[in-house]
Input
Amino acid sequence: MARTRYYTCLVCGKKFPEGQGIVIRRAGVELAFHSKACFTRFCKLFLERIEEKEFKRVARELMKEFEELQKQRMKQKVI
Ligand SMILES: [Zn+2]
Output
């Protein structure tokens, strides 16, 4: 029997089972959030505190990517 892993939301401290909530693993860091609201709260602070140069680079890159996706979706609607 597989044991369910539990995470603790780093924003509010609530515990939640694996498969629920939002868990991000990167560069040896694990970030767990029990809800979108907690994730959003963390992200807002994260974006405010991240180095401006890096913020600008990634923000512009993602803006372009989403713009492209929207263009593709518009084309599909026409057909
Ligand atoms: Zn939470």
The longest strand covers residues 22-26.
